[in-house]
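Session log. Operator J.P. requested a structure for one protein chain; no other inputs attached. Running the standard single-chain path with token output.
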Amino acid sequence: MPLHIVHKLTDGVMVLDARGRITLGHETEALRLAIREAVAAGYPRIVLDLAGIDYIDSAGLGTLVASFASARRAGGELKLANLTLRVRSLMQITRLSTVFEVYDSVEEARRSFTRSGL
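Structure written below.
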């Protein structure tokens, strides 16, 4: 299933609702592009909603890390929300759960930007 991303801007935070798989090829490129466009448009505070993601491969993990770094360089941050059990396990096994801020809902992640001052 190809990756489908819907952009939603709420209170200056770009929410990217991703559905499908994040795997090497068109999917990782689509995610990279969506995040690059958000940052270029002046919205480096990004919440990636992963409720609709059922699989992430190593290239997808690399894309998440690179996107995290891109948002940080632009003075923002990439936060993750609504991880499925499979994706949550993957983040824990790879210890990426220590890198990313992970939230149970998009609303929680969005509100965290207000609390952190970003």
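Operator note: The two ends are 34 Å apart (CA to CA).
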